Amino acid sequence: IGWSIYEDITGIARFFFLVFYAFFGTGNIASLNSFDPSSIRCFLSVFSPFLMGGLLFIKILIPILTTGILFSYIVKLRSMNMKLVTSLLQVFTDFLSLQFFHLVRDSGSWLDIGTSLSHFIIVEGTSGFLLLLLSLSNVLISAGVKQKMSFD
């Protein structure tokens, strides 16, 4: 039993790392103004800021949602307790938010203060976002399983 719990915890830690990697790997999230819309211009013939913003949002959401769906599928295959998974994810995000809370600066340049605050706010929002991501991916997986069963 001890080895199974160890494997579950390392799997949850890997998911936590991959979600952060998918989130920060798409660009500088701390400021949406820093996104370069040149990666989206090939899809649009006319300048449309709302459509470009939606495409940027999809660009950010695709790797995160893919990671969440794969993790939820692994949780279902291994018959892990979803309450245990969400509780451990909450513990990981709480430890990370404490770390970033102690890194918040109130002196120095405005850039340093703003960067430290934005990192803390992003980590604080991560706990709610991960719960939403797991719920959405569970819904998508259960809908996919029901649809597959109806074709048989």
Quick overview:
With 152 residues, the chain is mainly α.
SSE topology sketch:
Elements: H1 2-24, H2 49-77, H3 82-102, H4 110-151
Please give a structural write-up.
The protein is an all-alpha fold and 152 residues long. Helix content is 76%, strand content 0%. The protein contains four helices and no strands. Helix 1 packs antiparallel against helix 2, helix 1 (2-24) crosses helix 3 (82-102) and helix 2 (49-77) crosses helix 4. The radius of gyration is 19 Å and the shape is flat. The model has no long low-confidence stretch (mean pLDDT 79).
Q: Please state roughly what percent of the residues sit in beta strands, choosing from under 5%, 5-15%, 15-25%, 25-35%, 35-45% or over 45%.
A: under 5%
Given as residue ranges, the uncertain stretches (5+ residues, pLDDT < 50) are none
Global mean pLDDT = 79
Largest sheet: none
What characteristics describe this protein?
152 residues, mainly alpha, 4 helices, 76% helix
